[in-house]
């Protein structure tokens, strides 16, 4: 386990449309087959705030001045927060998980898989720390490594499971 958190944090990073979400989905499916409690956190890295439904009660609460506003219904909990939140602050909401897979937050120093499509994307590797896996595919639409080759998924899963046990 991580010394700061009671769970493992693993990141998946890469540029837009590189296959990050595909990899996260596959990892979550594989880890939950092991009866692990898995949480995910995605960074909205496209600039600006993610779009939230206007006019909902929770958005009205936030606009009235609430720093955090949440709504729960039928097992779905949506949290709307004002201000800038650090990754550490966001991870504090994941108590009870065994593993949290973070998509994005390139600058964070957690173990990570880096996905890159070409030589230009490869520059991302130079600024990253704690890289345990590099996944490369040349063609923009060739997600072979992410969709057909189980080697990367299996390797990452084993790495995570060893740290939880």
Architecture overview:
By secondary structure, this protein is an alpha/beta fold. About 30% of the residues lie in helices and about 25% in strands.
Mean pLDDT figure: 80
Spell the H/E element sequence: EHEHEEHEEHEHH
Structural class: alpha/beta
Shape descriptor reads globular
DSSP strand count:
7
Low-pLDDT windows of residues: 140-148
- Spatial strand sequence of the major β-sheet: 2-5-1-6-7
Q: Kindly state the percentage of residues in helix.
A: 25-40%
N/C terminus separation: 9 Å
Proportion of residues in β-strands = 15-25%
How many helices does DSSP assign? 6
| Gyration radius, rounded | 17 Å
The largest pleated sheet is described as: 5 strands, parallel
Please describe the structure with a list of short key phrases separated by commas or semicolons.
globular, alpha/beta, 165 residues
What are the SSEs and their pairings?
Blueprint: E1 8-14, H1 20-33, E2 38-42, H2 57-63, E3 68-73, E4 76-81, H3 87-91, E5 99-103, E6 112-116, H4 119-126, E7 131-136, H5 144-147, H6 150-164
Parallel strand pairs: 1-5, 1-6, 2-5, 6-7
Antiparallel strand pairs: 3-4
Helix pairs in contact: 1-6
Entry summary:
Helices cover 32% and strands 24% of the residues.
């Amino acid at each position: 386990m991580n010394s700061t958190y009671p769970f493992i944090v693993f990141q998946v990073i890469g540029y837009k449309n590189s296959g990050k979400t595909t990899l996260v989905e596959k990892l979550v499916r594989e880890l939950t087959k092991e009866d692990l409690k898995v949480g995910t956190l995605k960074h909205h890295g496209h600039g600006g705030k993610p779009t939230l439904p206007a006019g909902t009660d929770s958005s009205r609460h936030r606009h009235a001045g609430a720093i955090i506003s949440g709504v729960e219904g039928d097992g779905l909990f949506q949290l709307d927060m004002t201000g800038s939140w650090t990754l550490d602050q966001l991870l504090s909401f994941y108590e009870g998980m065994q593993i949290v897979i973070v998509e994005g937050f390139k600058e964070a120093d957690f173990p990570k898989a880096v996905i890159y499509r070409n030589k230009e994307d490869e520059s991302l590797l130079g600024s990253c720390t704690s890289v345990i896996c590099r996944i490369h595919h040349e063609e923009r639409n060739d997600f072979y490594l992410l969709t057909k080759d189980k080697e990367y998924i299996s390797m990452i899963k084993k790495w995570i499971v060893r740290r939880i046990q």
